[in-house]
């Protein structure tokens, strides 16, 4: 029995920052942002959008009444959780109107958690092939104004429906993974922003990829020539290429050109949205599938997942017949086109706005955000969500 992703979609808030304008405001050469790290725009989440609402909005495109009736597992993967105790999946379960008799849980391990969620969902569906699992990766990457990490911020979510006999791609059950306790990126409980050692984190990302690739090829006997394309976790779009460069010379020049072309296609959405942590790898996967025209049934795709701290995994999936019919290219293109560009003063003002942390009542102007699902305020320490 094949198990995999039946369909998937993403959501990013209705606001973005132009990276050239941001660079000029910070008196930095724009090429350092657009070429150096490979970012053109940065998705921005207003107070009305948090990890829960973005995750729920990402799933709206996907779910038919038949899907809803069959879902009995919701996994919310995030490092932008809103509560130390209650899983964000519980809110999403209600906002989407999912069946009462379902599990709803939250996973955390930096940017890796959605991959762990997919593995858990796969095992669940293997045991219950008539059921479906909804896996969501949702995050807001936030480092602070005028900080070195500012150009690698972003906001968004991906939603993936895991089923038996999937209509998009099937997992090949060839996963390899590893864990090392390192401090390349973390966020203490008392901090609203992350602590990152940028150069060290990049070095560890590449180190983990090299070790995962060596382990994978030894385990499976496959080589780079056996893959049509590779997708990577993309905290910024140049990051994955640093890993790809370590193995690309193992194939001939024609294959190298093909892999590099597919890599660039996989970065198109990330260039416009920025870093979305747990969802970044799968945003890249969607970007590849929705921009390519030459992949076919049976194409093997490699996926590299990395979460600082650190846990990494490499695995492959195979496209199934009719996969292109499961894509939401037009809806995603329209969503990005309808966003509002924030001026730098507007962005900075919205960035400084915060929710109360003392239990005070708070209302958010609903006119600022027309999303179907959003946060409208707080009351007695509780977040108040609405769904149209």
TrEMBL record:
SUPFAM superfamilies: Thiolase-like. The keyword Acyltransferase applies. Residues 177-250, 266-352 form the Hydroxymethylglutaryl-coenzyme A synthase C-terminal domain. It is an enzyme of class 2 (transferase). Residues 2-164 form the Hydroxymethylglutaryl-coenzyme A synthase N-terminal domain. Signal peptide: none annotated. (3S)-3-hydroxy-3-methylglutaryl-CoA binds at residues 29, 143, 242, 275. It holds the Pfam family HMG_CoA_synt_N. The active site is at residues 79, 111, 233. One of its GO terms (biological process) is acetyl-CoA metabolic process. Its EC number is 2.3.3.10. InterPro entries: HMG_CoA_synt_C_dom, HMG_CoA_synth_N, HMG_CoA_synthase_prok, Thiolase-like. It comes from the Bacteria. Keywords: Acyltransferase, Transferase. PANTHER family: 3-HYDROXY-3-METHYLGLUTARYL COENZYME A SYNTHASE, HYDROXYMETHYLGLUTARYL-COA SYNTHASE. Belongs to the thiolase-like superfamily. HMG-CoA synthase family. This is Hydroxymethylglutaryl-CoA synthase. The lineage of its organism: Bacteria, Bacillati, Bacillota, Bacilli, Bacillales.
């Amino acid at each position: 029995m094949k198990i995999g992703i039946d369909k998937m979609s993403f959501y990013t808030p209705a606001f973005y920052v132009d990276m050239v304008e941001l660079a000029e405001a910070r008196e930095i050469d724009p090429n350092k942002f657009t070429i150096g790290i490979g970012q053109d725009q940065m998705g921005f989440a207003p107070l009305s959008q948090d990890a829960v609402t973005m995750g729920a909005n990402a799933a709206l495109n996907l779910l038919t009444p038949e899907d809803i009736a069959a879902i009995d597992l919701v996994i919310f993967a995030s490092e932008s959780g809103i509560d130390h105790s209650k899983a964000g999946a519980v809110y999403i379960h209600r906002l989407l109107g999912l069946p009462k008799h379902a599990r709803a849980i939250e996973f955390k391990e930096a940017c890796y958690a959605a991959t762990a969620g997919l593995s858990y969902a796969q095992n669940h569906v293997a045991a219950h092939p008539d059921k479906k699992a909804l896996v969501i990766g949702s995050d807001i990457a936030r480092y602070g104004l005028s900080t070195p990490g500012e150009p690698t911020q972003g906001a968004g979510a991906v939603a993936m429906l895991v089923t038996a006999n999937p209509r998009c791609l099937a997992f090949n059950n060839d996963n390899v993974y590893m864990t090392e306790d390192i401090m390349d990126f973390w966020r203490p409980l008392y901090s609203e922003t992350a602590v990152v050692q940028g150069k060290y984190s990049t070095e560890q990302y590449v180190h983990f990829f090299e070790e995962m690739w060596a382990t994978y090829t030894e385990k499976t006997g496959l080589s780079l020539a056996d893959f049509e394309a590779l997708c990577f976790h993309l905290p910024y779009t140049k990051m994955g290429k640093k890993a790809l460069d370590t193995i690309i010379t193992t194939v001939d020049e024609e294959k190298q050109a093909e892999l590099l072309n597919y890599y660039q296609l996989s970065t198109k959405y990330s260039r416009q949205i920025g870093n979305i942590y747990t969802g970044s790898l799968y945003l890249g996967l969607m970007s590849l599938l929705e921009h390519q025209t030459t992949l076919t049934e049976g194409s093997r795709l490699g996926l590299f997942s990395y979460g600082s701290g650190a846990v990494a995994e490499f695995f492959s999936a195979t496209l199934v017949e009719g996969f292109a019919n499961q894509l939401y290219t037009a809806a995603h293109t329209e969503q990005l086109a309808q966003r509002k560009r924030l001026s730098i003063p507007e962005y900075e003002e919205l960035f400084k706005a915060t929710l109360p942390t003392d239990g005070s009542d708070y209302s958010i102007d609903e006119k600022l955000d027309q999303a179907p699902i959003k946060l409208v305020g707080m009351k007695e320490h509780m977040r108040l969500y609405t769904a149209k």
